[in-house]
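User: Please predict the structure of the protein below. I'd like the answer in structure-token form so I can feed it into my own downstream comparison script.

Assistant: Understood. Taking the following sequence of 319 residues as input:
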Amino acid sequence: MQRLSYAGRYPEQQSLKTPPASLLLVSVLGSFVLAAGSVILLAPEDRISVARGAWLSGLGLIFFVSLFDLLNHVALQTNVGHVFRKKYELTLYEVLDISNKTVSAVQAVLSCITGSIVCMWSCTRDFLRSSHFMSEAYAWFGASYFFYDIWSMYKVHTSGKSDVERQQHSGHCLAQWSDYICKQPMIVLHHLFIGSFGFLVIIHLRGDLGDCIFGVVYLMELSTPFVSFRGILSKLKMKSSQLYVVNGLVMLVTFFLCRVITLPYVCYKYSDYVGLSFWEAFISLPTGCKISIAILMFPQIYWFILMVKGAFSVFFPVK
């Protein structure tokens, strides 16, 4: 009876249908265990075959989609979710956004674990040549996340539309996607670039180069849980809390260290390795490599500037 009254109070939840919780939980745990089991017996410098990689990508897609749906199911169709949603007066849009950010944080943790393993193995041996299978394995598994997240953010975007807007776009999927891409161009392009070209660099285009640099790139995700947590706290109406302020400061520091100066640091390590000055080493890089670094750096600097502006608005509000 309680669940029926809750559904009646929040009729928009009926627009989101999820499989049974037991099936979603099996999908999340099963896909992760199968992925780990398919690589755990490999030697550190083994390579990932295309067949094994495709298997990992499929499992990755199941893992991220199922985790997103499981979180939504708990929030929208259980008594625990009922209490939580009622306490913080969450809309469907806010619930889906919290789920999206939680999955992003989980992906970031997996990426950092991968980066730590790869760096501890490769960076302590040969900066340019030593490899670890985890780099390629997670490239296959994690690439699915970036395509899942485009879909997930689209779901969040459409759930935030008013009833009038939904009726106007009803049956016009292309128009809804166009509206979503126009409002989120930076993140969509970033995800497409990382999930396609970035993925190809790690598994194929790098040639005989090792994994130390890619391990450091995986560690760039260290700031993501704090970015996600800030968004979640905002949705919970906790912007004025001390926790929000502390998390924001940690987010700024980790984002600057992990996103803004990571690639310049890698270039510095490369210059030290080849015995050239920083700029000489950078100029000596292949053109494609320099373009890739620029494409990666631009959104990081853009987002960091937005974060700094947000921090100033919190600490120095306009009266």
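That's the full token string. Confidence is low (pLDDT under 50) at residues 1-14.
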